């Protein structure tokens, strides 16, 4: 059933309070919910309509009297005109142990936990499961004291005590009204790591991280990240935490990354646990970023929440922007931006170009879980970033202050957010709002002309918007384009200015320029567009060396690389010696110790296949890979000695740390090792194995394994075996062991995949493990996923069909790489389409999978 934004009406009833009581018993859980309802003056109906799924109602009482005049149909309980004010008590029975969908109350390794966003609360009790119904929750949990010593819910602990038969209880109270998607409960045998934070007004907050026994040593980084996040939100946004306690619980079975339940964040272990021996630098960065993300939701999501799920990006886009900026402030701004933009291009741009393209504020959906997308999150963040760019940091802060003032405790829309930006700045942002409504990645084309007589320079921009499903003839957008100018020697003659495009075509003139400048356009990637440049290779080379904007410096090199790849794709014998020499100059700079190592690592890495694919009219991953690999081989052959020297110069300096400098060093070695091992010979394998053997940290181990993954040398198996033996008791590392094999571009891959699928450690019910095999393969092994035999598609198809009944959310998510089938060669298209059709023909297809598959096929 499709739900439309235009059909929104306020909830008919408000909930004054919600008292929940959970009796956790073997084989079943009894939930008692007592809610005081009052008619919503803004409501348009008199009927109380409660959502409920996957539960048996044991009894219903209205104002304490047994009540049976309700109907239940399509997962909704309806009570016709129950009155202006009343108390409804519903007792029901649920079965958390049988809940493999991991929505609502479920069990993970024996412990109980919840996931209610977006619509999981209805699997716990009948309620108006919508974000605009805010209420004060009191939660009593009763369970066996030995098996479940830890009992948690939102807010403050109000009461606790022992009960007969070895049972105990706790009562939690959250004084701040909240929507039910932020409700959480945890019961289990967990260890607590504790610290404190003193807020800007001097209040002390207890910080607790709960993990399984043995994992306590891996919590330090998450705890530090939490304290840094709390401080940053005070400093940058003036936002203070309101409660005396902040809990984080790590669980192994989780559909997403983490969840911001008020004062009781629940996390995938993958985003809490981090130790040098088991986590890579990128894991450390993700933990920091996601801890921050969930903490920041306290203000952007919880205290100010969404009116309805069409507004999901109100909280997610803004919170992603906040966590990206936090990470940029704490680490390297340029590196952060490069990595974020790379992710956007590799994963969001394809979504925008697919049948599933949707706007940041969508108009319709069937299953809201399918809208936790790169568009809502990452493009949504870009929309906030553009407003930050247009307003400037100070005015932006004024606007967010206004937003929090105006809407604390309210459920609002993306329109309300942008209105605050407009009110605080005095700017008209109505055209800007089109970004929220128009799907698809815009293209911005620019051309330039220098008039030596007038010493003036003009930049002409043209913007266009692609048609997307159900959206054609789009309007021009308000696009901030950050521009700087360099002279022929690379000196900056015009510092960054933000040009504002509002028309289809616009010209900007710069005067007093004695020579033709080289423009640095879209600095910092100031708008999520595809930029078409008329710059010459020489201009790009100048920017690659001299641009003061770290992002555009990298971008210039990537554009040169893309041009080279396209040349080789057209003509494998093309002369690319100039490009190879340019790379040589970068290596030489690195050898002299010039510049940032992390940036050099990224400059030495050719664009990934998924990014290159975005520039192709018809995608042929094998052809892209062949060209890309041929170029890497030439780079290796031309610069073998210099690369080896650069590798040696950046070896392990002794003690491990995760400073940007240390991470940059490891990233540089990894980038160099990838080039050095690209030819897969014995020397390569020996070098990679030596890297592995010398490693005192997981980053270096993974670097070595990744560079051996395609190898046909014996070292590959040796290192993989050692890795498994060493880390078999660490599920998150076993995930890496699965992934490192799934991404191998080698002949035997399909045998490997079968072996991994049948491995004793594979578990279809654990999303991390499923992703470690299937997502790693389908997303990070484009060549073999798109194998002309169709075996890659069949492998994915089968797991989607299997997961359809076990975990529909994960099943639907797995369809992602098939969505873009029309972008591929005719032969691949036919095979991808067949896989989609086979999934569509599955009996009992879940709504989640149905939506993605049918939209993929129909567009
Ligand atoms: N709000 C969570 C976040 O921090 C995501 C939870 C989504 N859960 C889901 N089942 N779709 O981004
Ligand atoms: Zn979020």
UniProtKB/TrEMBL annotation:
Keywords: Aminopeptidase, Hydrolase, Metal-binding, Metalloprotease, Protease, Zinc. Residues 20-182 form the Aminopeptidase N-like N-terminal domain. Residues 537-858 form the Peptidase M1 alanyl aminopeptidase C-terminal domain. Its cofactor is Zn(2+). The keyword Membrane does not apply. Residues 440-534 form the Peptidase M1 alanyl aminopeptidase Ig-like fold domain. One of its GO terms (molecular function) is alanyl aminopeptidase activity. Residues 222-434 form the Peptidase M1 membrane alanine aminopeptidase domain. It comes from the Bacteria. Coiled coil: none annotated. It catalyses: Release of an N-terminal amino acid, Xaa-|-Yaa- from a peptide, amide or arylamide. Xaa is preferably Ala, but may be most amino acids including Pro (slow action). When a terminal hydrophobic residue is followed by a prolyl residue, the two may be released as an intact Xaa-Pro dipeptide. It holds the Pfam family Peptidase_M1. Its EC number is 3.4.11.2. The keyword Protease applies. Belongs to the peptidase M1 family. NCBIfam families: pepN_proteo. This is Aminopeptidase N.
């Amino acid at each position: 059933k499709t739900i439309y934004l235009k059909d929104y009406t306020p909830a008919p009833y408000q909930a004054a309070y919600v008292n929940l009581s959970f009796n956790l018993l073997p084989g079943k859980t009894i939930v008692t919910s007592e809610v005081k309802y009052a008619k919503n003056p803004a409501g348009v109906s008199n009927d109380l309509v409660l959502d409920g799924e996957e539960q048996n109602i044991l009894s219903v009482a209205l104002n304490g009297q047994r009540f049976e005049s309700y109907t239940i149909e399509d997962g909704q309980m309806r009570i016709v005109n129950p009155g202006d004010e009343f108390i409804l008590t519903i007792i029901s029975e649920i079965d958390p142990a049988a809940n493999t969908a991991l929505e609502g109350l479920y069990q993970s390794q024996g412990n109980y936990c919840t996931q209610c966003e977006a619509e999981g609360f209805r699997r716990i009790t009948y309620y108006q499961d919508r974000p605009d119904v805010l209420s004060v929750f009191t939660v009593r949990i009763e369970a066996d004291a030995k098996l479940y010593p830890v009992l948690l819910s939102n807010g403050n602990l109000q009461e606790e005590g022992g009960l007969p038969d070895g049972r105990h209880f706790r009562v939690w109270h959250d004084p701040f009204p909240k929507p039910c998607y932020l409700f959480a409960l945890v019961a289990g045998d967990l260890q607590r790591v504790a610290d404190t934070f003193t807020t800007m007004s001097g209040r002390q907050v207890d910080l607790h991280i709960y993990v399984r026994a043995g994992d306590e040593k891996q919590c330090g980084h998450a705890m530090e990240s939490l304290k840094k996040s709390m401080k940053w939100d005070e400093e940058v946004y003036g936002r203070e935490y309101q409660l005396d306690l902040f809990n984080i619980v790590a669980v192994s079975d989780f559909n997403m990354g983490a969840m911001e339940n008020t004062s009781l964040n629940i996390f995938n272990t993958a985003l809490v646990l981090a130790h040098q021996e088991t986590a890579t630098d990128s894991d450390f960065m993700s933990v920091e970023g996601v801890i921050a993300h969930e903490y920041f939701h306290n203000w952007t999501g919880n205290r100010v929440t969404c009116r309805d799920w069409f507004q999901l990006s109100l909280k997610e886009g803004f919170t992603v922007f906040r966590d990206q900026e936090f990470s940029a402030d704490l680490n390297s701004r340029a590196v952060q931006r490069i990595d974020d933009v790379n992710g956007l291009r590799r994963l969001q741009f394809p979504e925008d170009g697919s049948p599933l393209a949707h706007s940041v504020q969508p108009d319709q959906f069937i299953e809201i879980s399918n809208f936790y997308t790169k568009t809502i999150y990452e493009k949504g963040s870009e929309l906030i970033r553009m407003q930050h760019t247009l307003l400037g940091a100070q005015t932006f802060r004024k606007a967010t202050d206004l937003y929090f003032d105006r809407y604390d405790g309210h459920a609002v829309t993306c329109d309300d957010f942008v209105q605050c930006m407009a009110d605080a700045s005095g700017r008209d942002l109505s055209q800007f709002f089109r970004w929220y409504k128009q799907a698809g990645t815009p293209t911005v084309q620019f051309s330039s002309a220098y008039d030596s007589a007038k010493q003036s320079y003009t930049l002409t921009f043209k913007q266009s918007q692609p048609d997307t499903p159900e959206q054609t003839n789009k309007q021009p957008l308000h696009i901030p384009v950050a521009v700087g100018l360099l002279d022929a020697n690379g000196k900056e003659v015009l510092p960054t200015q933000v040009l504002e495009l509002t028309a289809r075509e616009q010209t900007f003139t710069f005067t007093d320029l004695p020579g033709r400048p080289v423009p640095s356009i879209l600095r910092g990637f100031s708008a999520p567009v595809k930029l078409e440049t008329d710059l010459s290779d020489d201009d790009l080379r100048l920017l690659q060396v001299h641009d003061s904007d770290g992002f555009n410096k990298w971008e210039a090199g990537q554009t040169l690389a893309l041009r080279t790849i396209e040349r080789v794709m057209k003509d494998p014998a093309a002369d690319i010696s100039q490009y190879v020499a340019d790379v040589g100059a970068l290596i030489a700079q690195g050898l002299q110790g010039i510049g940032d190592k992390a940036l050099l690592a990224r400059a030495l890495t050719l664009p990934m296949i998924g990014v290159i694919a975005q520039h192709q009219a018809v995608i042929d991953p094998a052809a892209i890979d062949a060209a890309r690999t041929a170029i890497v081989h030439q780079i290796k052959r031309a610069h073998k000695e210099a690369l080896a020297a650069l590798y040696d110069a950046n070896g392990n300096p002794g003690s491990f740390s995760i400073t940007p400098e240390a991470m940059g060093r490891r990233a540089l070695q990894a980038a160099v090792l990838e080039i050095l091992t690209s030819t897969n010979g014995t020397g390569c394998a020996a070098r990679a194995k030596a890297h592995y053997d010398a490693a005192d940290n997981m980053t270096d181990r993974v670097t070595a394994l990744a560079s051996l993954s395609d190898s046909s040398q014996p070292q590959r198996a040796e290192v993989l075996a050692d890795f498994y033996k060493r880390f078999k008791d660490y599920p998150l590392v076993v995930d890496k062991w699965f992934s490192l094999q799934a991404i191998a571009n080698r002949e035997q891959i399909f045998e490997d995949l079968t072996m991994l699928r049948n491995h004793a450690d594979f578990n279809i019910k654990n999303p991390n493990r499923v992703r470690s095999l299937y997502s790693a393969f389908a997303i990070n092994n484009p060549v073999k996923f798109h194998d002309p035999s169709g075996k890659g598609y069949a492998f994915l198809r089968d797991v989607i069909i299997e997961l359809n009944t076990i975990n529909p959310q994960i099943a639907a998510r797995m369809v992602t790489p098939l969505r873009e089938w029309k972008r591929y060669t005719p032969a691949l298209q036919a095979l991808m389409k067949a896989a989609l059709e086979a999934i569509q023909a599955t009996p009992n297809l879940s709504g989640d999978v149905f939506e993605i598959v049918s939209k993929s096929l129909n567009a």
